[in-house]
Amino acid sequence: MKISIADSRSDAKSLARLFQNSISAAYISHSELQGPRAVRADEWVANVKDVFFHEISERLKEPRQSFPSGQNWKGIIEVHDGDALVGLAFVTLSHDAAVPYGIIEDIVVDKSRRSGGLGEQIMRWIFAQMEAAGIRRQFLESGIGNESAHHLFERLGFKTVSVVMMRDG
What we know:
- By secondary structure, the protein is α+β, with helices and mostly antiparallel strands.
- The protein is 30% helix and 25% strand.
- It contains five helices and seven strands, in the order βααββαβββαβα.
- It has helices at 12-21, 30-34, 48-59, 118-132, 147-155, and strands at residues 2-5, 38-40, 43-44, 73-81, 84-94, 101-109, 137-140.
- Strands 1-4-5-6-7 form a five-stranded mixed beta sheet, sandwiched between helices.
- Strand 5 and strand 6 (101-109) form a beta hairpin.
- Helix 1 (12-21) crosses helix 3 (48-59).
C-alpha cells in the first residue's frame, strides 16, 4: 500500500472516477449542499464526476512530498495498492486560527476495500503528516446517514462539536 500526496503528476480523472464510484447519497453533508456537489441531502448533481474532476485538478498544481509547515494548504491524498487506486482524501491545513488545524474534507475508500482497515490506515497517515507540519487539531464532517464512517471517526478520537441544520423554504 502506498499513501502519498497527489500532485501535478497524478491522474485527476482516475481520482474523480474513484470518488464518484465509491460514494452514495449517505455521504452528502452540509458542505456538499453549500457547494456544487449536491442539490438535496439525498441527491448528487447530475455532473458530479465533472465537479470532482474540477475540484481535484485545482489541488494538483505542483509536485509536493510533504504537508507544508506553517502554511495554509489544500491538497489531495492518493492511495495505491500496486497499480490500483484504492483511496483518496481531500485535506486542508490552516495556520490562521488561534490553534492551527487540519480538515479531512473527504475520505473515500474503494467499495471493494472497505471494512479492511484501509480508512483507518489513511487517517493515521494523515494525522502523522499533520503533526509533522505542526497541526494538532483536526476537523471533519460526515453525512448524517454515513454511520460506518462515524464509527471509524469516533474510534480515532473525533467528537461531535456542533450540529449543522438546514432549512429549504
